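Weekly sync, protein design subgroup
Attendees: M.S., D.O., the rotation student, P.L. (late)

Item 1: inverse folding check
M.S. brought a backbone from last month's batch and wanted to see whether the design step gives back something sensible before we order anything. D.O. pointed out we never logged the input encoding, so this time it goes straight into the notes. C-alpha cells as presented (268 positions):
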C-alpha cells in the first residue's frame, strides 16, 4: 500500500512539474527556432545575436536592473530598520504598525499604481518635474519595503535577545553590538527580503506602467509594447536568458544552504 501511495505521489508531483514547466520548455525550444512563427524551421542562435543588437531592449534591460537593484537596496535598509523599530513597540501600537505595513501587500497593484500616478502628477505640477526614473524608483521602494519587513520581523522574534545584552556587557556599545551580533542573526531574513524585493521590482509591470511617464522604459513595458505589435522570437531568447539566470541563482543558493546545514550538523 505504501509503495502504491509513494508511486502515486511521485506521479502527481511529476504532473504538477510538467504543468508548471512545460510552457517554459516550449519557450526555450522556440528561442532557437530559425523561423518567426510557431512552425519549426531549424536550429539557430540568430535570435540571441539579434537580441543583443537591439538597443531598445538593452536600454530597457539596463533600466530594469538599475531600478531593481537600487530599490532592493533601499527597501532592504528601510524595511530592516522599520522591523526593528516596530519590535520595540509593545501591545496595540505594534499591531497597528504591523497592520499598516501589510496594507501595501494586500492592496491591489492597480490601486497602488493609480494613486502613485496621481501623487507624482500633483508633485510634478508643484515642483515642475516629469515622471521617469526617480518616480519609478520611489514607487518600487514603496511597494518592496513591506516585503522586507515581513521577512525580517520573524527573525527578530526568533532571536535570543540575551546575546545583545551579553555584547553590551562585554564592552560593545549599541552600534557595535548590533553589527557584530544582531546583524548576523537577522542576516537570513535581510537577504530573503533583498531577493524578494529585487524579484518583485524586476517583474513589476502595473505600478511601473502608471509611474514611468512617457520616456522611461523598463523591460516588462518594452515586452508589452512588442507583444501589442507582434511577438518577436527575441522575446523568447530574452525570457530564456532570464529564466536560466534565476535558475542558476536558485541552484547556487540551495547548494550553499545545504552545505551550511550539513556543516552545522557535523559540528554537533
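Designed sequence read out in the meeting:
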Amino acid at each position: 500500500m505504501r509503495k502504491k501511495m509513494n508511486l502515486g505521489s511521485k506521479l502527481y508531483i511529476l504532473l504538477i512539474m510538467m504543468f508548471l514547466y512545460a510552457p517554459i520548455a516550449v519557450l526555450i525550444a522556440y528561442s532557437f527556432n530559425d523561423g518567426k512563427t510557431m512552425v519549426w524551421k531549424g536550429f539557430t542562435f540568430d535570435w540571441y545575436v539579434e537580441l543583443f543588437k537591439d538597443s531598445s531592449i538593452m536600454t530597457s534591460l539596463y533600466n530594469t536592473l538599475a531600478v531593481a537593484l537600487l530599490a532592493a537596496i533601499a527597501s532592504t535598509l528601510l524595511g530592516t530598520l522599520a522591523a526593528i523599530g516596530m519590535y520595540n513597540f509593545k501591545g496595540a501600537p505594534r499591531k497597528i504598525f504591523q497592520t499598516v505595513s501589510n496594507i501595501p501587500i494586500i492592496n491591489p497593484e492597480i490601486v497602488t499604481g493609480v494613486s502613485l500616478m496621481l501623487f507624482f502628477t500633483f508633485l510634478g505640477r508643484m515642483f515642475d518635474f516629469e515622471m521617469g526614473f526617480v518616480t519609478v524608483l520611489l514607487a518600487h521602494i514603496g511597494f518592496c519595503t513591506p516585503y522586507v519587513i515581513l521577512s525580517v520581523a520573524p527573525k527578530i522574534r526568533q532571536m535570543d535577545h540575551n546575546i545583545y545584552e551579553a555584547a553590551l556587557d562585554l564592552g560593545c556599545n549599541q552600534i557595535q553590538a548590533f553589527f557584530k551580533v544582531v546583524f548576523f542573526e537577522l542576516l537570513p531574513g535581510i537577504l530573503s527580503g533583498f531577493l524578494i524585493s529585487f524579484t518583485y521590482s524586476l517583474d513589476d509591470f502595473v505600478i511601473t506602467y502608471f509611474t514611468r511617464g512617457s520616456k522611461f522604459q523598463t523591460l516588462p513595458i518594452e515586452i508589452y509594447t512588442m507583444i501589442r505589435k507582434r511577438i518577436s522570437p527575441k522575446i523568447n531568447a530574452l525570457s530564456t536568458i532570464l529564466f536560466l539566470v534565476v535558475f542558476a541563482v536558485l541552484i547556487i543558493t540551495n547548494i550553499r544552504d545545504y552545505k551550511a546545514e550539513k556543516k552545522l550538523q557535523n559540528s554537533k
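Discussion: The two ends are 37 Å apart (CA to CA). The chain has a mean pLDDT of 85.
Action: P.L. to compare against the previous round before Friday.
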